[in-house]
Amino acid sequence: MHPAVFPLWSSFGVSVVLAALLAWQSGKTRIHWVLLFLLLAAGLWTGGAAWRYMASDLASIQAAYRIMFLGIALAPGTWLFLCGLFSRVEWFEVRPAAGVFCLLPGACFYLAFITNDAHGLVARIGADTFDNGPLMRAFLAWCYGQVAVAIGLMVRHARFLAGQAGPAQAAVAISATVAPLVASAAYQFGWIQMTWDPTGAALGVSGALLFPLVFRLGFLEPVPLVRRDVFDHLREGVMVADAEGRVVDANPAAERLLGGAVGRIRGQELRRSLEEIVEPVDHGSIAMALADPGPDGPRVLPEVSTLSGRHLRLSCGLLGDAGFVVVLHDRTEERKSERALRQAQKLESVGFLAAGVAHEVNNPLAFVRSNLAHIQAACESLESIAKPADADIPAELAELPEVVAETLEGVERISTIVDQMRRLSRDAAEENELVDLNDVLHEAIRFASLHRGSRHVEVVAELATELPAVRGNRSALVQVVLNLLLNARQALAEGLGNRIRILTRADRAGVVAVVADDGPGIPEDIRERVFDPFFTTKAPDEGTGLGLAIAWDIVREHRGSIDVTCPPEGGTEFKLVFPAAP
């Protein structure tokens, strides 16, 4: 019996047993199916090789070669694909073309092999001879290249493997990857004196090494192998760093927060990557957390602010001796929701207060107005009596009509404030009509009279055509936009700009309207307070601080949202979003 028969049949048995055990397992993922395909290819390779050394006639030898080379054609590409998936290379995980790229050359080679009798480019096959042809040598070079890339992927991933499964298991995995290539190269280049190719037997050794890792230690089960299902779909940004503090991986959420792709982030110092996006005042907190990530569990940092205006809460924890992981929890939307809730609570409190105040103030205000009107009529009568008689009127009485007029103006101002307070205390308006937001903007622009006054105001309207309607109260929506336009005009009077930009559009969020000016903007420290009742930066005789609070309340009643931002180039931008009517 040929000395190759026993090791080859042993390798065949190992491949078949492992394939059967893997096929019997439930809940297989894609990487399990790729491994199963590789085991079947190894079985064809070793089984065909064993049969070839046992066959005595040329027909049996040729049939054995066809089986053996089917396994040889499939194994290297499948091995590369498996290593690419296991080492978390994105191209192998998300591109269907990756499998075709790995297996197509082998399929073409096998087609050339089974038609070798017609062209003889693969090999010259005899009963006791097998001389490589040009296609065979080219295919071997391709196979060596594939396996070398697979080994490179595994070696590059070795540090992460050591952290996840332990150094010993990582060394075993690398050895299983390298063994077939070393055996084949040693035979092909004459480094060992053997009469048969030991590559098939080395495949059995690799299978034996992988057996306890796959079936006893669950080597294919950790998070890296379900990265597309878990890691990439987490809403929180996750960054994994090695023991030296350099980023080895990051998910798409972290990419968005960091403003760069994984390829750019990977290899950078983790601390530097985080400091590039947060405010300088928070650099000390990041340095402290990364210096002491919390051996007893993830250490949660205080909330930090990014340069783009987002709010992040970071937690940092160790990954054994392999490094540590940082989770970036984006709290920007939570902060907006909390702010909206606080705003609603403030308005509710003000509403209860306003209902009582408006009721109590209106009664005395009514007779004050009535008495002032009576005094004003008396002053007019006094003037009509004094003029024909050419009598001298004391200075105090002469100024009385002007004093009464100013007092009435003050009373009317008080009445306006009371009406605004009653607006905060009333029930939500019935949203029973379809409203064209473009028409609302046109009407608000007309009411605002932006072109009046000594300062020229340029109005740029970019209104979308075929804008979906919104359901609500037309006059209330006009009041919202009118308030924003008047605020914008006043902001222009305080700065050097002279343009108000108004636009509408429809997107997945709903129907959007934007009112922007190129004035001085709103300081960041008070930006979150602009919708608070009675908060204003205007002079006491210029504003009450209720306009934006009422606008916020109206927008909320219409199930919409209103946000204010100040672009880096300057100015203020108010954005209204309403749900489109069906």
Quick synopsis:
This protein is α+β, with helices and mostly antiparallel strands. It has 4 domains: 5-226, Rhodopsin 7-helix transmembrane proteins (Rhopdopsin 7-helix transmembrane proteins); 234-330, Beta-Lactamase (2-Layer Sandwich); 335-425, no CATH class; 433-578, Histidine kinase-like ATPase, C-terminal domain (Heat Shock Protein 90). It has helices at residues 5-24, 30-54, 58-86, 90-94, 97-114, 116-119, 134-156, 158-165, 167-188, 199-216, 252-258, 262-265, 270-275, 283-291, 332-389, 395-425, 437-448, 474-494, 547-557, and strands at 123-125, 130-132, 237-242, 247-250, 299-300, 304-305, 311-318, 323-330, 433-435, 458-462, 470-472, 499-507, 510-517, 561-565, 572-578.
Q: In CATH, what is the class of the largest domain? A: Mainly Alpha
Helix percent band: 55-70%
Distance between the termini: 82 Å
Task: Please tally the β strands and state the result.
Answer: 15
Query: Helix/strand/pairing class, anyone?
Result: alpha+beta
Radius of gyration: 40 Å
Q: Averaged pLDDT, please?
A: 77
Q: Show unreliable segments.
A: 222-227
Domain count: the total is 4
Instruction: Tell me about the largest β-sheet.
Output: 6 strands, antiparallel
CATH architecture of the largest domain: Up-down Bundle
Which descriptor suits the 3D outline? elongated
Question: How much of the polypeptide forms β-strand, as a percent range?
Answer: 5-15%
CATH superfamily of the largest domain: Rhodopsin 7-helix transmembrane proteins
User: Helical element count?
Assistant: 19
CATH topology of the largest domain: Rhopdopsin 7-helix transmembrane proteins
